[in-house]
Amino acid sequence: EDSVRNQVEHVEALWESFLTRHPDEPHAALLDLGEQLLRTQRQWTAQVWQPLTGDSERPGNLLQDVCLYWLIWGELGNLRFCPELLCFLCAAASAHCQEASEAPAGDFLGGVVKPMFAVVVSETFMPGDPPKPKYGQAPAPARASNYDDWNELFWDPVRLRSALRLKRSGAPRQGRRKLLLQSTPPAEVWSKLPNVDWEVSLAGKKSHCELHSLVPLFVGCYRVFLLQTVAFALMMCFVVTTNIQEHLLQLAAVGLIAPAWMLFYGIGYQILTPSLAWRTRFLSLLTLIVFYMLPVVSYAFLVLLNMDLVSVSVPAVVRMNTSESEWVLAVHFTVSALVLLCALRPQRPNLYRWSFYPKITLNRAPGATAFWLLAIGLTFGMSYIVLRLCGKSIHGLWEMHGGTTQMPTSEWMLVIAQLVLLVVPTWLCFSASLPFFSSIVTAIVGAIRGVRHLGGFKLIWYRRGVGLTRTPKTMCTRVLQVPRSRPSDMKPLKAFQWWNQMSDRELESFVEVWGTMANELRERDLLTDKEHHALCFESVAAARQGKVPRLLDPMDVFRLRNSLPTNREARRRIVALARSAQMQPLPSGTVRQMPTLSVLIPHYGETILFQRRDLFAEGRNTALLHYLVKYYRDEFANFAERICGPSSVRRQSSDPFQAQESLTADLEIALSKWTSLRMQTLWRTVEGVCNAYSRALATLVRQQEPGAMKEQYDELVREKLQVVLAVQQYAKFGDPKNPSFDISRLASVEALLGAFGDWLTIAYIEEQQDPAGKRYFSCMIDATCPFDPAKLVGTTGMGMRQPKFRIELPGYPILGHGKSDNQNCAIVFTRGEVMQMIDANQDAYYESALFLPLALQEMVGASSEKQGGRRPGILGFREHIFSDIGLLGRLAADSEFTFGTIMQRTMDWPLQARLHYGHPDVMDKLQMVQQGGVSKGTKGLNLSEDVFAGLDLVLRGGWTKYQEYFHIGKGRDMGFMSALSFYAKISMGNGEQAITRQWMRMGLELPLQRLIGVFYTHVGFYLNQVLMSCALQVFAFMAAFYTISQPINMGFADAAVGVSTSYFGILYLLFVLASMLPLLLEVSIEEGIRASLWSAANSFLSLSPVFASFQSKLMGYFFLTTVHYGGAQYIPTGRGLATSREPFAKLFQTFAQTHMHDALDIALLACFSAGVYYGWPFYLCMVFTVWSWTFAPFLFNPQQFDDGRQAVRDLRVWVAWLWAAEGSPQESWAAWHLRMQTMRSSARMATMLLPSARLVSALLTTILLQELSPVHAFEPTWEWARTLLVLLPPVGHIVVCVIVAPCVRYSRCFSPPLIPTHILLSFVAISVTCYEMSLLEWYSSSALAVIFQKYVTLRFLLEVADDVVAHRPGGAALALVHEVCRIWTQSWRLPRDALLGFILSCICILLACVPCLAQVHALFLFRTRPQGKCCSDAPAGEEAEREEEEAALRGLFEAFAQKAHRRS
Question: What are the start-end ranges of the H helices in 1045-1171?
């Protein structure tokens, strides 16, 4: 079997890896391997298997156990996501092996694995080939089981014994017997597994309900929200109460907050954990009632005591001249404080009372405590100052109402409404300000640590080429690990010359390393020939005589500033080498001592290698090539110089590249690779990893083992390094019958194997059609595999290779979002003890790869740090973002650069909140296997699949680490749509994370100081974006409400003015500061203060605050909608340079629901607030928000203002989209609107309406209108009806829709009407409502209030109708009601979208007519002018097109070759 042969290779490779740390001690190496691999297996066996079966612990064959573990793991397929299921199978197999007999091949896969996997598939998928999701794009129900639920079934012997049932063996009425009876011998369990009825055994084993709501997040992280609520309530008490002694009863009410949250937590946790033991349920409720409700009892007694309804006798011993109420008050405060402290403690782990439950390593993190004391202190200090103004507003408002509680009910309701609108925005700003202050403190702490670790003031000199003379000695001693020896004949005058301080071996080692780096820089076209020559040593002998490059010559100190290369990337890489070499501390270790490394790169549809069609079209170079040449002018000149050479340039010929077809083809290949190495392609990633890692390791081996032969060097490097490329669709690339057939992609894969075959292994998924159905295989090929004669494509001689290993899978493997399943299918072919997860948009560098052995030694070597007896499971490194092309590319690069450096530096320490972010993290494969793999694979829940590796690692007692001496390159999105698609994807991923068991357990079990850090750097960050957008809308509503309430009392608006001026501008300032400060500080450290100031100025000139505001709204929207509705989907972002124009209709469809509708709402509310001056910060922020939320998509859209005629065509297309009644959402506004409504169907209708902000706003405005224009007592008169009509929402059109709805349903059977129904009804809605408004009595004091109330109530009713359309309550019986709601919502939403779109279209048309604006816009987005238009049409015919493409290629090369000639 291929699976067995594969695992034999695997075990041998792992054993050899451990032998490097136990030389000549194979048994010790095997013991170490078993200890690292079988840690969970042994713990599970002792806690579950032995109590379950009565099997006593017996000495076993360690090699047998290791081999059994890997053999079973290798055949599980997607069931590898259930690690304790693997433990169960291994324990059963181990017991069976004592009396084993040989079984047929495939017996385990067919008899055990496939039946289990069939149950997994049937839970959320319908039968098919491939299977289709049962629920479409909607999320699976909260009660649907997933990998984690089935895995946790194996955590408890009681549940497991009850669950596992055998198939019926007799009559149908005969019950299913249990597999694990008390009398069942352990050795027989394995043989009975094929007889288990897995469909019955695995059904209904839900241990955590993934309820799409904010409830799971509030339950899991209740301590964060409890702390926030208590802090806000205390501050409000102190700022509102003038004399605290007179209002102790109100202050005592703060003690009720902890019981309220504990009540919410206790009920919510029991609902979300259906498998909770009944004993635990009872004890939890008992503790809740008996202990956590004590403040409620003491407060109730205190209230009754103040009302003279009860009395208390205070013992004389404790009376001490205190009254009864004071004594009870002291008891209440004491009890409340005790309850609060207990509530803030971590909950006891394993509330399920299962026998096996991994526990978090409790590190108290004292640094995190100090960090949060500072951040919270700053928040409270600022908030207290601002809240005092809020307190004054509340006092002033109370005085305006008479300062007494004796007032009518209607006035009381108005007071409550006004207080709500003062307190809610204040609370939103208070809650949102803590994450901003934490970001500011994070930046400061990260900057301090960065200065310390990155070299401090040394970096200032390194950037100018000064101080690099220390690099040779540091490199030899700390990186190359060459033995240090001082020359005996060194004279005192030569002591300051570094080459005189080094032995011959050290000098030779450094010269080779430096020369290899210089050559690599030249190969990447980062150096000119002249610069390359100036950087290289002539020879070791010349170096000994002092003939060294100027950059390393201490005697040339006055000219060193100009000795760095001119290319920015070359300078960065040289400085990075010097910076990393001096970092403290650096571990020690050689290549031979390092563990084996497997680099895993998943690939689906990303570009592998650019082809001719990507670079040339219609006889000229494409926009992609045009912009790349503009951006990389110097590198393209170096490329031309390298390709043609000086001799070719000097020829006086109009064609320096000749006209031979062969030379032209070579140039095309070279240009294709040059372009691919500057974009985010798979070729760049594979070439970077293979070349950088292999060259660095080979260089190090030559220096560390100078006596070895070259063959030995190469063999050692091949043993230590493996690159696994998971090309999921490789089999489809070479299948002409498949829609994904692509001979160019197949050729590109072959080019990769040809260039990097010594290290490259390719894994892919293959399908095979059998009479019984499709079978799926995980296959592996390498450069030694021959071509399959049956799969050659045409006459090219190219085709698919015969796989070296072909392992059958239990079924269709892509049940998740693809990436995790692809990684899972490829991981069986990895041989390394350590894995590095790399994406197909990354790069590696030779000089950084020199530190690779040190990094791996730090993780698993003798010098590795251990916590809780475990080595780090994940070792994170920094990234260099190379995709700063164009405005959006630079903004995305800055954001990623900040997160990957200063933020993660602080998350690692002091917060200890760093988990796993995919790349370029190095992972201990043995720990990852024991927790289910490097990612999670449940569709929807695990959209952000890689972060779950860090979550599970921490929950299982592991830990992570972060270092900065090693780094790799990374690309980020470079267009507006692609960048926002990325942010939407991670926001949806965090929304799904918030409802998982991992986040709930992290929230309940982590120490508070670590929890706050983990929360605010992950899901709390996205929740804060929601709070920000909500705060803007609430402030706008508050301003409108208080403006309209002026007819009651002209002083009411003063209260709102105080709140808006005190908090609103400060909140926005904090938002901008928290967004920009981390970048400014990190740039200051690494590039200098001048560069930092230029970066700040450039950010403002690039309108980064506009993008940040738009991005924040988008993240908040997708996070909240995913939490409520689910349906998170993988969004392919695209990693190319966005140079094409997005149509207006597409931009409107994409961002109307997320941004534009709320912006229009804020604008209308701001209009209602006219008449009162709320301060310039309020109006500035409102205008900025509305403008950025509506116009940012067009501002950052390439070629948006190039042509006024195109803008007019966009308007016509958009009007046609509005007009269309049928078609897809991209073709019809009606279909698009219906999709927006049906998205709500996955959330319960009641949960979406009851806490609705629009419901509250409708109630508040109705209270205000009732005070302004009260409804009189009932009289059967027209006058009374008119007063009632004032309070009612617009109802006239509802009557029209009820009449029209049957006709609309009936008309679908006939041809569509001339005017679509939704267009016609929109005009009717406006007309009927205008007539309805004309019937009202209009008074100057209430006219604006009437319009405001009807607008706000209409918003709420539209939301209710949306839910009716989405959920269709009553089914077919109420179909007419559903139709009424559908056409009624369309009638109102169409005028809104028509008005909004028409205004935006007109602005775009006017701007497109402005002369030279297109050029300015292109410079703004790309820092270069757009590519010129063709002057003439391309010649017809394929041959003529080919000639023009070659002419364009030769002309391009000629221009730059002549430039290189002039320069030389």
Answer: 1052-1059, 1065-1087, 1089-1101, 1104-1125, 1144-1151, 1157-1168
C-alpha to C-alpha distances, 84 to 52, 165, 217, nearest whole angstrom: 14, 18, 26
Return d(Cα 1351, Cα 1358) in angstroms, integer: 11
Contact 594, 720 (CB under 8 A): yes
Q: Which pTM does this prediction carry?
A: 0.94
In Å, what is the CA distance from 795 to each residue of 87, 736, 791? 51, 13, 11
**How far apart, in whole angstroms, are the C-alpha atoms of residue 1128 and residue 1119?**
10
pLDDT tens, position by position, 939-981? 989 999 889 999 999 999 999 999 999 999 999 888 899 999 9
Encoded tokens for 1376: 């007419």
Residue 1055 in tokens: 């209260």
CA-to-CA separations, 1252 to 90, 821, 1020, 1255, 1359, in angstroms, rounded: 52, 39, 21, 5, 9
Q: What torsion, rounded to 10 degrees, do the Cα atoms 1217, 1223, 1224, 1226 define?
A: -20
> Do residues 21 and 593 make contact, with C-beta atoms less than 8 angstroms apart?
yes
pLDDT at position 1310 is 61
Q: Name the phi and psi angles at 798, rounded to 5.
A: -110, 145
DSSP state, 561? G
CB atoms < 10 A from the CB of 882, how many? 21
- pLDDT for 1065 equals 77
List, for residues 270-305, the tens digit of each pLDDT value: 999 999 888 889 999 999 999 999 999 999 988 888
Measured between its terminal Cα atoms, the distance across the chain in Å is 62
- DSSP-derived letter for residue 817 is S
Rg over alpha carbons for the chain, rounded to the nearest Å, is 35
Owner of token pair 């939103």: 428
Alpha-carbon distance 930 to 89, whole Å? 13
Beta strands, E only, 688-742: 721-727
Residues in contact with 785: Cβ distance below 8 Å, sequence separation at least 6, in sequence order: 801, 802, 803, 804
Cis peptide before 1007 (omega within 30 of 0): no
Exposed, middle or buried, 119 (CB in 10 Å: 0-12/13-18/19+)?
A: middle
Q: 775 - beta bridge partners? A: 768
Rounded-to-integer distance, Cα 468 and Cα 575, Å: 8
**915 touches 960 (CB < 8 A):** yes
Query: How many Cβ atoms sit within 10 Å of the Cβ of residue 39?
Result: 17
CA 786 to chain CA centroid, Å, is 41
DSSP 386-421: HHHHHHHHHHHHHHHTTSSS---HHHHHHHHHHHHH
Residues sharing a CB contact under 8 Å with residue 142, sequence separation 6 or more, in sequence order: 209, 210, 211, 212
- Catalogue the E-assigned strands of 831-972: 834-837, 842-843, 874-881, 922-924, 960-970
pLDDT value at position 399? 83
Reference 1216, options 1144, 1160, 1158, 1311; nearest CA is: 1144
